[in-house]
Design goal:
By secondary structure, the chain is an alpha+beta fold. The protein is globular, with a radius of gyration of 17 Å. The protein has 6 helices and 15 strands. A hairpin with a 3-residue loop joins strand 1 and strand 2. The chain is 31% helix and 34% strand. Helix 1 packs parallel to helix 6. It folds into 2 domains: 80 residues, Phosphorylase Kinase, domain 1; 140 residues, D-amino Acid Aminotransferase, Chain A, domain 1, CATH 3.30.470.20.
Length: 239
C-alpha cells in the first residue's frame, strides 16, 4: 500500500489517500493541543503511544462486536483504516462528573453518573463545538433519528466494554469522546480512542492518566502516556 496525497490534517492526526480503494492511512503526529488549540506543543513519541492504544482498543472492540474503521498498523504511528463518511458529531460518554460538565452544571467533581450521561457536540471548530440535542441533530440533517438511536446504543456498548477492561487494570474510565461514520448503511466507530480522547483516573491514587496532565501541567506528559499505554496494552493482553 502506498501513501498518496493528504486528505485532511487535524490538530494531532493527518489522513492520507492510498492506492487502495476505500482505504486510508492515518498518521498519529506528535502534536498535542488543549483549550481549543490555545495551548500547543510537539512531544516526542506522543503519536505512537496514542496509535498503540487506539489500535489495541479498536481490536478489542471489534472482537466484541463493535464495527470500527480499523484495518491494521503499518508502523508504530501509521494506521490503515477503512474510509468512512464521517458524521460531524462528537459523542461524549460520561461515567463520572469531571471537566466541562462540572464547569457548566451543578455537579461536584467525582460524582458517579449512573446511568452514564451521553453528551453530543457539533464538531465545528469555528463554532467551538457547541452542544446539540436530538432535535437539532435531526433538523441539521447530521444524522437521522434511526442513526442517532444506533449511535447512542453503540456508544453505551463501547462504554461498557472499555469500562470493564480498564477497571481490571486499576483505571477508572471517567469519560471519553468518540466519532462515528457511515460505511454504506452501517454506522462504524472512527477517529481514535486514546489518552487524548479519554479521561482516565488511577483507581487508588486518583492520579490523572490522560491529556489533563498536559492541560493542567500535572507532571511529565510523555512519561504518563508511556506508562498508561504499557498498562492498558501489555497488562490486558495477559488476561
Amino acid at each position: 500500500m502506498k501513501q498518496k496525497k493528504l486528505l485532511y490534517a487535524g490538530k494531532a492526526k493527518s489522513v492520507y489517500h492510498t492506492d487502495v480503494d476505500r482505504k486510508l492511512i492515518v498518521e498519529f503526529r506528535d502534536d498535542i493541543t488543549a483549550f481549543d488549540g490555545g495551548k500547543k506543543d510537539v512531544l516526542m513519541n506522543k503519536g505512537s503511544y496514542n496509535a498503540e492504544v487506539s489500535a489495541f482498543l479498536f481490536e478489542y472492540l471489534m472482537k466484541n462486536g463493535v464495527k470500527t474503521h480499523f484495518v491494521s498498523m503499518i508502523d508504530p504511528r501509521h494506521m490503515v483504516v477503512r474510509e468512512l463518511e464521517m458524521i460531524p458529531l462528537e459523542v461524549i460518554v460520561r461515567n463520572v462528573a469531571a471537566g466541562s460538565i462540572v464547569r457548566n452544571y451543578p455537579f461536584k467533581e467525582g460524582t458517579k453518573l449512573d446511568p452514564p450521561v451521553i453528551v453530543i457536540d457539533f464538531k465545528d471548530d469555528a463554532r467551538h463545538d457547541p452542544m446539540l440535542n436530538d432535535d437539532l441533530i435531526v433538523a441539521l440533517k447530521l444524522a437521522s433519528p434511526a442513526e442517532l438511536k444506533k449511535i447512542k446504543k453503540v456508544a453505551l456498548k463501547i462504554n461498557q466494554l472499555l469500562f470493564a477492561l480498564l477497571a481490571a487494570q486499576g483505571i477508572t474510565l471517567v469519560d471519553f469522546k468518540i466519532e462515528f461514520g457511515r460505511q454504506g448503511k452501517s454506522i462504524c466507530l472512527g477517529d481514535e480512542i486514546s489518552m487524548d480522547s479519554m479521561r482516565l483516573w488511577d483507581k487508588k491514587s486518583g492520579e490523572s492518566l490522560d491529556k489533563d496532565v498536559y492541560r493542567f501541567e500535572k507532571g511529565d506528559v510523555m512519561a504518563t502516556y508511556n506508562r498508561v499505554a504499557q498498562r492498558i496494552t501489555k497488562s490486558a493482553k495477559k488476561r
